[in-house]
UniProtKB/TrEMBL annotation:
Name of protein: CDP-alcohol phosphatidyltransferase family protein
Keyword tRNA-binding annotated: no
Source organism of this protein record: Marinobacter flavimaris
Keyword Transmembrane helix: yes
Lineage top rank: taxon: Bacteria
Length: 292
């Protein structure tokens, strides 16, 4: 009974944290299913270290299966999805036991890096062995470049802030501070306690809702989780097409499509990042005005 009560408290806390990391995958798939897995781990008396080890093993198995062609890609994608779910589980267990730490966060990043870095070479080899087409091989490495760039863009504000505060020469630090202040972000957004409120109470238009939905879908599809799911659907489509229509090689067209989509995202996200004030706004809020 005590375990049930403990899991109920854990479940309520994780859903409360959802607003801070609430993407499409987390809301409809990641969090609901991972909580069920976490409950099993709690009943078995397992810890976050067991979940992290399971996460690494399932990820490496998923990556290795990619070498075996469409069937391997399908089952490999399933293992990689389980790898993503266990990523939620180890954090949930660490928070439940009060053992969340910087060390755990660093090991979690290494876990992701090892699995993601293993996935793409295995996928490239599997596609090449399947039909010997060099274009599929090239497309996979385009996908890998996008995956690395996506991580870079996500961590860009923190990386620049770290460099600005520690390793830049004094003159360069002051120039950056000055330029940030001159370009300044809205001071109202710098307060962590301030909440964004709508400027008016008018209902959101249908066009705005469509744009918002497309944006959510795009963000979900460009994540590593989204890539894994799309890859699994591509492999399943290839298997169905080969069985029903004797049409082989569909997975290669899916990979080429995903590569073209990645090129579009590389250009669009990079250009949007350069033009937007997101990084400048965040740095300005963290650094403040030294003259004050």
């Amino acid at each position: 009974m005590n375990k049930d009560f403990g899991f109920q408290a854990l479940e309520e806390r994780e859903w409360a944290l959802f607003s801070e990391r609430g993407d499409f995958f987390t809301r409809y798939f990641g969090l609901p299913i991972s909580l069920r897995i976490t409950n099993v781990y709690l009943r078995l008396g397992l810890t976050e270290n067991h979940a992290s080890f399971s996460m690494l093993i399932t990820g490496l198995i998923g990556a290795a299966l990619m070498i075996l062609g469409p069937w391997g890609i399908l089952f490999g994608s399933c293992f990689l999805i389980l790898h993503h779910l266990l990523d939620y589980v180890d954090g949930q267990l660490a928070r439940h036991y009060g053992r969340a730490s910087v060390k755990g966060a660093v090991l979690d990043r290494w876990n992701h890096f090892i699995v993601e870095t293993a996935t793409f070479p295995c996928l490239a080899i599997g596609l090449y062995l399947d039909n010997g087409a060099i274009w599929s091989w090239v497309a996979v490495w385009i996908l890998y470049i996008w995956n690395r760039l996506r991580v870079l863009l996500a961590q860009l504000p923190a990386n620049i802030l770290s460099e600005e505060l520690s390793r830049y020469p004094v003159l360069e630090r002051e120039m950056m501070r000055s330029n940030l202040v001159n370009a300044s972000a809205d001071p109202a957004t710098c307060s962590p306690d301030s909440e964004r409120k709508p400027e008016n109470n008018q209902p959101v238009s249908f066009k705005s809702r469509i744009r918002s939905s497309i944006s959510h879908i795009r963000v979900a599809s460009t994540s590593y989780n989204g890539f894994t799911i799309l890859l699994g659907f591509g492999a399943l489509t290839d298997i169905v097409a080969s069985q029903l229509f004797f049409q082989e090689g569909t997975i290669h067209y899916v990979i080429l499509f995903l590569a073209a989509y990645s090129v579009l995202n590389i250009i669009d996200y990079s250009w949007s990042y350069i033009r937007s004030d997101r990084v400048a706004s965040e740095l300005t809020c963290r650094l403040g005005n030294p003259a004050e």
